[in-house]
Amino acid sequence: MTPCHDRDEWDDLVNSSGGHPLQLWGWGELKSQYEWSADRVVVRDGARIVGSAQVLLRTLPQPFKSLAYVPRGPQAQEADRGRVVEALADYVKRTHGPIGITIEPDWEAPFSPLEKGVSDEDLAERIAAPSSDWLADVEAAGYKRSENTGLIPRTLIVDVTRDEDTIMKELSSSTRQNVRKSFKAENVRFGLVTERADLDQVLAINKETAKRANFAVHSDLYHEQIRDFMGPASQLIAAWEGDEVVAFVWLVVSGKTAFELYGGVNPRGMKLRLNYGLKFWAMKHVKEQGVERYDFNGLLNDGISDFKRQFAKHEDMLVGTYDKALSPLFPVFATALPVVRSTLKRGVPAAKKTVANLKNDPKATLSGAASGARSKASDVKARRSAAKWNKLG
């Protein structure tokens, strides 16, 4: 297991191994501006590279020390996944001493893809089925599936290697009509955002969309740093009517995968249905770059997810979140985590207050968490709020 300190070498490795854009060097640099640090490591079997991972480390209040987190990683072929995650846990424990490691790989669950609109109950039964093959190897390495999800595993991934007509046929009939109508709309264009004034319009739409859909957003500076640290891997695409930005989708792109970070539309864009054409234009745009997968980034039971579902006849399920405890304190932290995440919906100050309370009196905070968890409806709401926040990265 060896660290990598060269950006070009690392990104070449991620792209050549089919890695996710959240494993690119720039994403680690971005998160390093916000109380995280990044360690990029390569797993070898002799001279052969069998895996790699960008590990993010977050300092936690005492006595927890830190947490290791691997967003949409590591990279490893199926036959190597068990030993790669085992080696990764051994490395971070020895090198950084965190209380635990959490991985959220970009690996499809064995039962994926799913039929469109599969029920939560049906999905839960499939998840609960005994693991086999490579997933059993991951669990044998000491990892346990967790409901403390950061990145949503239920999603929609469109295969953009197919021709455009085939992709179009998978859209619902009304969606196809809206796409074609938006492409013919007068004084409308689609393209990459390159001007500061257009970026300002995008950020305004993002805030407006967040207010309408009731989720939190990062600062303008954070969004600007996505562009700065990710470089060409950050691709902000917009729809204009004249000089006005009316819809946008913000992608991060690796060699194989395009991943939606954010998207939004203002009332004028909704009236013209330009958010439909924008999605299809974005898929065509990344297809031209040789990208194979377009990931819509998460499906919940909400209006935004209903909109996403119109672009395919299936859904996808990634393997989800897996934790490995590296300290006896990890179960305490894991119990408190949903409380901290749910407060993020009310903003960072509220979350910091919760963390401070946890630091001063962990037992009292956890007792409150257990009491709140008795209500199933409250628990579902908290998990959805956490998912919406964590979708923002």
Automatic annotation (TrEMBL):
| Source organism superkingdom | Bacteria
Q: Does the keyword Transferase apply?
A: yes
Q: Which UniProt keywords apply?
A: Acyltransferase, Cell shape, Cell wall biogenesis/degradation, Peptidoglycan synthesis, Transferase
Give the InterPro entries listed for this entry: Acyl_CoA_acyltransferase (IPR016181), FEMABX (IPR003447), PG_Glycine_Bridge_Synth (IPR050644)
Q: Where is this region: Disordered?
A: 362-393
Query: What family classification does the UniProt entry report for this protein?
Result: Belongs to the FemABX family.
Q: By what name is this protein known?
A: Peptidoglycan bridge formation glycyltransferase FemA/FemB family protein
List the source organism: Dermacoccus abyssi
